[in-house]
Write a structure and sequence with these properties.
Strands 1-3-4-5-6-8-9-10 form an 8-stranded antiparallel beta barrel. The protein contains 2 helices and 10 strands; from the N terminus they run αβββββββαβββ. The chain is of the alpha+beta class.
Length: about 160
C-alpha cells in the first residue's frame, strides 16, 4: 500500500513539473521576432537626396530606430533641435516596401498626441506626416538605401 502511494506521488510530481516546464517554454516562445531582421534595428542616416531638386543633404547625428511596430527618428547628441518623432511601422509587397505612418511628436516613453510637423520630418528625408512608403532598394544588415516619392535615403547600421 505504501509503495502505491509513493509511485502516485512521484507520478503526480513529475506531471506537475512537466506542466510547469511546458508553461515556461510557452511564455518564452511568445517573444515577437522581427519581420525583417536586416531592416529592423538602429540606423544612422548618413545622407538623403531630395528627388525633385537632386539636392543631397549630408546628415549628422540623425538616427532611425526601426522595430516591427514602431519607428523613431531622432537627433542624438546634436544641437540642431530637429526633434524626435515616432510612427507606426509596416511592410507591403512581400516586405520589400517599408511603410511609416501616423508620425507623432515623441514625448517621454511614447508620444504627446500631436501630429509631427512635416517641416521637422523633412530633416530625416520624410515629406509626409500621414504615410511614407520606402522601397527597400538595398539592405545587407550593414547599409541600407530607401527610396520614397520624396527622397533617397542612405543609412548605416549603428
Amino acid at each position: 500500500m505504501k509503495q502505491l502511494s509513493i509511485n502516485n506521488l512521484i507520478n503526480s510530481s513529475t506531471s506537475i513539473l512537466l506542466t510547469l516546464l511546458f508553461l515556461c517554454l510557452q511564455l518564452i516562445s511568445c517573444e515577437k521576432a522581427p519581420i525583417r531582421s536586416d531592416v529592423e534595428g538602429f540606423w544612422k542616416l548618413e545622407r538623403f537626396t531630395v528627388l525633385s531638386t537632386d539636392e543631397t543633404v549630408e546628415c549628422q547625428n540623425l538616427y532611425y530606430s526601426i522595430t516591427r511596430l514602431v519607428t523613431e527618428v531622432s537627433e542624438r547628441n546634436g544641437s540642431n533641435g530637429y526633434g524626435a518623432y515616432i510612427s507606426r511601422t509596416g511592410y507591403e509587397e512581400d516586405e520589400t516596401v517599408l511603410v511609416l505612418s501616423d508620425f507623432k511628436v515623441r514625448w517621454n516613453t511614447s508620444d504627446n498626441g500631436e501630429n509631427a510637423p512635416v517641416e521637422g520630418l523633412r530633416h530625416y528625408g520624410i515629406n509626409s506626416q500621414s504615410e511614407t512608403k520606402f522601397q527597400i532598394i538595398h539592405c545587407d544588415g550593414k547599409t541600407m538605401t530607401l527610396l520614397s516619392d520624396y527622397a533617397r535615403l542612405e543609412l548605416r547600421k549603428f
